[in-house]
Design goal:
Layout: H1 3-20, H2 34-37, E1 38-40, H3 41-46, H4 48-58, E2 62-66, E3 69-74, H5 77-83, H6 87-109, H7 116-127
């Protein structure tokens, strides 16, 4: 076995380990540990600084309850940004879907539509199915 082959073999398991085991320093929200990460509003208010630091350090959200029910989540800004979708892109897609629905409603109102059976027949014919 050549040295380059051995090098590739040795590097491969390390890369797999790095991917499989998330680094605590890499941003991204982790799954909360229910026995540690659910707190009451009163407890959160009294130790807010500690919980903010904990979310930053562990990358786990803190679930805040009021009257025994979960109401809010405390998460670090870095993790929020890493986990948040591209809001502008989501908005663009939502607007496009609404536009498409308006067009479809107009077509339906004008009788420009087909039954499911006819639509599937046209697709089969178009693609030779």
């Amino acid at each position: 076995m050549s040295s380059s082959t051995r090098t590739k073999t040795k590097k491969s398991p390390r890369k797999a380990t790095q991917t499989a085991v998330p680094s605590a320093d890499r941003p991204g929200i982790r799954r909360p540990i229910l026995s540690e990460d659910i707190i009451s509003f009163t407890e959160c208010r009294g130790k807010l600084g500690e919980y903010i630091e904990k979310t930053r350090r562990t990358h786990r959200p803190i679930i805040v309850t009021q009257n025994g029910k979960p109401t809010s989540v405390l998460v670090s800004v870095i993790d929020w940004e890493a986990s948040s979708p591209n809001w502008e892109e989501e908005q663009r897609i939502a607007e496009q879907v609404l536009d498409d629905m308006r067009i479809a409603e107009g077509q339906f109102a004008n009788g420009e539509c087909h039954s499911n059976k006819d639509a599937f027949s046209m697709v089969r014919k178009e693609f030779g199915l």
